[in-house]
TrEMBL record:
<dbReference type="Pfam" id="PF12804">
    <property type="entry name" value="NTP_transf_3"/>
</dbReference>
<feature type="domain" description="MobA-like NTP transferase">
    <location>
        <begin position="6"/>
        <end position="168"/>
    </location>
</feature>
<protein>
    <submittedName>
        <fullName>Nucleotidyltransferase family protein</fullName>
    </submittedName>
</protein>
<dbReference type="InterPro" id="IPR025877">
    <property type="entry name" value="MobA-like_NTP_Trfase"/>
</dbReference>
<dbReference type="InterPro" id="IPR029044">
    <property type="entry name" value="Nucleotide-diphossugar_trans"/>
</dbReference>
Amino acid sequence: MTIPLIILAAGASTRMGKPKQLLSYQGRSLIQHTVESAIASFCNPVIVVLGANAQQIRSQFNQDLVQIVENPHWNLGMSTSIRSGISALNHDSQNIEAAVITVCDQPYISAEIINNLISAYSATKKPIIASQYAETLGVPALFSRQFFPELLTLNEDTGAKYLIKKYRDLVLAVNFPLGAIDIDTPNDYQNLQANIKLSE
């Protein structure tokens, strides 16, 4: 069973004011942390979709261990990065059963969180496995290959959550309470750093 993982890391971080992919987190950057978690998981291959600040960001991790896809239309919304990632998959391979889609600004992502999605899929064969946090369902999320054509037709700033809502009856939720924490603004980042200090 082959399940690739697609990391969406193409945004310009306009609310942060600087590339959030490069923010320091526990001795490395956020994108390094996400890539390392993905590589340590059951997923293979790991695809990183870059756009804004691509040259700076690609230097953050071992490019031999991931497949980098540059999305020239990143400024048109998250859907373009999802389409870029799904397009990079080998659709002729019958071994690809599903794909996990995640973002690079959830600091509490881990290989265990990713593997929980895959284990739930293996056990139940539900076609969508989504993370549950803050009374919502979102990424990281696993989509069986039956949804690849629809992921390729998402428009503008429509993300994977659109399909999770559309096919709610087909979704299995996996708890990831800390998935509610993502880093979009300087205040988000300050809160994260404060919480880390409190837990030390």
